[in-house]
Structures are given as structure tokens and as C-alpha cells.
Design a protein that fits this description.
There is one protein chain. The chain has nine helices and no strands. The protein is mainly alpha-helical and about 240 residues long. The C terminus is likely disordered.
């Protein structure tokens, strides 16, 4: 049976989905929309990713390696910052899968009758609709996580150029770079996305139609990024989502 904490967790995801959908809908239709929807979306994220702190420094250090804590801290940063629409996308995808799973495991059994057992005297099977939902989530989860990992690189490019063009604070790319630094060491999806981006940019910078200096500048930038990326990170202590 689901606990109150479980319902609050799910409520945060549903709040994020509803508010995020409203904000994305207006954005895609080039209509003005109140930043309240943006704030409400990340409030849902904070509700879902919240972890009660414990007065133990060893725990705090382990918690910093937990992806739920990483996304919670990032959500708090977005919640207190000027809206960056695309920053909602990863959280929206995560909440979609969590909400679907909660619906299948907790809500559907309360309203849909179970299916017949596979064998006489066996346990009842989930409703056919719940089975289809479960199969859809399993079939699309990895693809969605790959898209999220690529989107997180796009978000970094957005806040980096936004800082250069004075559209957002200089703090944003610094904070997000540190977040990606942690994700690189803790997520295979992020490593794959960065490897793909690195190959594409390297191939593009070395294109014959471009001056050789372009490739040389990129290799220098790449060297600095690799050197910085090799610095110490907190080792994960809990099971990874991916």
C-alpha cells in the first residue's frame, strides 16, 4: 500500500507534468505565459526529489553523489533563477515515466479489476491496460534517457551562449558544467552523449572547408575540458537510475 510520502512524491511529478505542459504549450505557440507555471513545475521537482537531510557529514558526502540529490539541487537552482525553458525538459521526461509507473502500480489496481491468473490457484495478473503501459515504459525508457542526456548538453550550450550574450547570469554555465561533470562519471547515458557530441564537433572543426585554425582551437578547448573533467568527483553510493 502506498504511503503518504509516496503520494506526495507522485504529486510532485504530476504537478511538474501539468505545469510544464502548460508552459511548454504556450512557448511552442509563441504565446506569453506567466513564469508562475515555470516555478510551479520546478516546485513539483523539488517535492519529488526532496531528501530529508541528516546531520552526518559522511551522509552528506554520499548524498552529493546520489542523482536524486543532484537533480534536487539543480531544480532549486532553476527554481530561483531566471526561466530557461529547455531546462524543464529533462525533468518533464523523468516525471512522465515516474507518473506512468505510479499510475500502473498504485492507481490502476484501485479502479481496474485484475486479470485472471495464468494457472489455477495462481496470483491474479495485472489488468491488460496496466500490462500495455508497463511494456511501453520498458520499451521506451532507454531511448528517453538518451534523449535527456543529449538535451542536457543542449541546455549547457544554451546557458553558455546565454551568458556570453548577457541573456542569463555567468553563474548558470558554471553550475551546469559542474552538474554535467558529476553526471559524466555517474551516467552511461551522459558519457555516450558527450562522446557523440565530441565526435561531431571534432569532425566539423576539421572539415576541409574550414580554416585549420578552427580545428586547432577546438582541440585546445577539448584538451582543457578533458583536463578539468578528470578532476576528482564524488563516487556514487546508491544504485544508479541507468
Amino acid at each position: 500500500m502506498a504511503t503518504t510520502q509516496h503520494y506526495l512524491w507522485a504529486g510532485g511529478h504530476f504537478l511538474l507534468l501539468l505545469s510544464g505542459f502548460r508552459y511548454f504549450l504556450a512557448w511552442t505557440m509563441f504565446k506569453s505565459v506567466s513564469s508562475w507555471w515555470y516555478k510551479a513545475s520546478f516546485l513539483g521537482a523539488l517535492m519529488s526529489y526532496f531528501i530529508t537531510p541528516q546531520p552526518n557529514m559522511a551522509y552528506v558526502r554520499r548524498a552529493l553523489a546520489d542523482e536524486n540529490v543532484q537533480y534536487f539541487l539543480l531544480a532549486f537552482f532553476w527554481w530561483t533563477s531566471r526561466p530557461v525553458t529547455i531546462a524543464l525538459f529533462p525533468y518533464f521526461v523523468f516525471s512522465l515515466f515516474h507518473a506512468l509507473t505510479f499510475t500502473r502500480t498504485t492507481l490502476m489496481p484501485q479502479f481496474l479489476p485484475p486479470g485472471p491468473p495464468l494457472a489455477a490457484g495462481g496470483p491474479p495478473q495485472p489488468h491488460p491496460l496496466a500490462k500495455k503501459l508497463h511494456l511501453w515504459v520498458k520499451a521506451n525508457y532507454d531511448t528517453a534517457m538518451r534523449i535527456v542526456a543529449i538535451a542536457e548538453l543542449v541546455i549547457f550550450a544554451r546557458v553558455l551562449f546565454g551568458a556570453l550574450l548577457f541573456r542569463n547570469s555567468l553563474m548558470m554555465p558554471l553550475v551546469y558544467a559542474n552538474f554535467l561533470h558529476q553526471r559524466y562519471f555517474h551516467s552511461q547515458f551522459t558519457r555516450d552523449a558527450i562522446t557523440l557530441a565530441d565526435k561531431r564537433i571534432t569532425d566539423l572543426s576539421n572539415h576541409p572547408s574550414l580554416p585549420p585554425v578552427v580545428g586547432q582551437v577546438w582541440m585546445r578547448v577539448r584538451e582543457l575540458v578533458v583536463r578539468w573533467g578528470g578532476s576528482a568527483v564524488v563516487e556514487p553510493a546508491a544504485a544508479r537510475r541507468d
